[in-house]
Amino acid sequence: MTTIAYRDGVLATDSRVTSGDVIIGEVRKIAASGDGRIAAVCGVAEVCQEWLSWWAGPQDADPPELDEDTGVITVEDDGVWYHTDRGRWQLEAEYHAVGSGRDIALGAMAVGACAVEAIEAAIKHDAMTGGRVQSLRAKRKPA
Asked: Which residues contact 23 (CB under 8 A, 6 or more apart)?
């Protein structure tokens, strides 16, 4: 799995890739679109990479289908959104986190951590979150 955290225009994630209980490497889990919107993915690696490639590309077609184990947080001009195979919901809170280290990241942000620090806490305490922290700042803080 992975952990994604959002706060104050910054989206952050870890880089660990696992297969079951085996760590198999690292991968980029975050991308910017051509117009400055940002997205991070968690779940099945192949689905995540396909979705991020679409996001970073021209987006000429509909987004790739997400499976039941994959989630995406996007930061867009009109807000912060959570995407799953069941739909898309606007997240309306000061900060957000999803993935296996969600509770750790939310706890860190509840006591003032930024998104990057929240991922650092998840890397330290969640077995399925690891590798390096990856982060992007939205060009404009969403409305």
From this structure: 16, 17, 130
Question: What type of residue sits at position 73?
Answer: I
Q: Which two tokens stand for residue 72?
A: 């995406």
Residue 40 · residue 4 · CB < 8 Å: yes
Contact 125, 105 (CB under 8 A): no
Does residue 141 have a pLDDT over 70? no
Q: Apex CA 54: angle with CA 104 and CA 100, to 5°?
A: 15
pLDDT digits (tens, 9 = 90+) for 54-76: 999 888 889 999 999 999 999 99
Residue-wise pLDDT for 88-134, tens only, equals 999 999 999 999 999 999 999 999 999 999 999 999 999 999 999 99
Torsion, Cα 10 90 67 53, to 10 degrees, reads -40
Domains and CATH numbers, the chain: 3-136 (3.60.20.10)
Q: How many residues does the chain have?
A: 143
